[in-house]
């Protein structure tokens, strides 16, 4: 076993929510800047309809964890091509052009939005990262979520050194999610134990939105 990570004791800002409930009023946020890999969908939410989507809000990313077989999202998907279908691990980036650096605020905006709306999603980059740790530390501050590890930040260590060798799209940075460790996928608590107990080389499956 090696010194692998720092587990932040402060509560992480993540929320697991099934979007078929009643919606309180939300707040207005800033206009969303342009980012790569995004697409827009147009919905109309009226009484008696629901989104039919599960969202997980953590750090900067409000992420789709599943899409039901019915609901507004499923209806949109049935009429759309692959490039604009909402799918697992897409990030809800903006609601009617409004974005926030805090994913829970994006979620709150969605809750308070009715009638016609434009939702902007961003495709995830999913990649495997293999790092050799030896006796060193990974240097990651991690927090276990329901089915992932949230990267809260980095300090000096193996991951920072790895980041120097790859482009931005393959780096591990704050608000990325680790969804697999050495081929294992499961609860955040189990993933954290896998990281803590990993050998001199560890393989991480990382979700990122750039």
UniProtKB/TrEMBL annotation:
Domain PDZ: 40-125
InterPro entries xref list: PDZ (IPR001478), PDZ_sf (IPR036034)
UniProt xrefs under Gene3D superfamilies: 2.30.42.10
Protein name from the UniProt record: PDZ domain-containing protein
